[in-house]
Amino acid sequence: METVTNPSDSVPVNKSRNTSLAKMTWRRFRKNKLAVSSLIFIVFIILLSLFADFITPYEVDQQNLLKRLHPPSSEYYFGTDEFGRDLFTRVIYGGRVSLLVGFVSVTGSILIGTVVGAIAGYYGKWIDNILMRIVDILLSFPSIFLLITVVSIIGPDLKNIIIIFAILGWTGTARLVRGEFLSLKEREFVLAAKTIGMSDARIIVRHLLPNAMGPIIVSATLGVGGVILAESGLSYLGLGIQPPTPSWGNMLQSAQSITIMLEAPWYPFLPGLMILLTVLAFNFVGDGLRDALDPKE
Fold it and tell me: What is the C-alpha separation between 197 and 42, in angstroms, rounded?
């Protein structure tokens, strides 16, 4: 195993450390068959969403009023909705929207939470107190009521939904990163970096943050499933992604009438099943990553 010295900071750097850690993490992760199966399912759903234009047999808003609420058949794999639109097509495009909201908003919330948590954990004292009191204030409000209130004020569209989830979803990550930094900043390698005059920003980015990435990755994975579920709930209430743009949540909202439930039970079943399977898959992958990255293992 080769060890070299970075001349810019005189701190030993192990070239193969990151590669070995990744291999070890993957070896532990693949022992969890449920997590691996969930990861395969997530990749499959992502590929379906990315290549929806080539997979779907109809346009997303193409209507055939003569075949409203048509049952599943060789012509319409999942049947049709109340406007005669192909449900197979809309479920796949709905997955594109739901996954987009999940990934982009969680990326934003992870970035905000990581920055806030890193500053609070590294500097401590009054900075930590101020930032954590802001976190406590946000956490004191029930999340669903806070989401409904903000969405009602600024309006329910795709861009606003992503921004809202990103702004309101960073508190858990901030607490997690703060806890990691409080522990890591007392370690010997951090004290050594301070001794040789390394700047705070460089210590945070090059030494502390890489060692805190495990919990952050797990938090992001679990967060995507949570955002998809929350967006579906908002859309079901009519406060999420607005028709005619399909999402799994607003498809459920469109199918909630008694007539549709009785005449076309397959209509609400399919988007509901996709929400269930996708959220479970992200949670199982998150649990698998948590076990694989656990230093006690």
Answer: 45
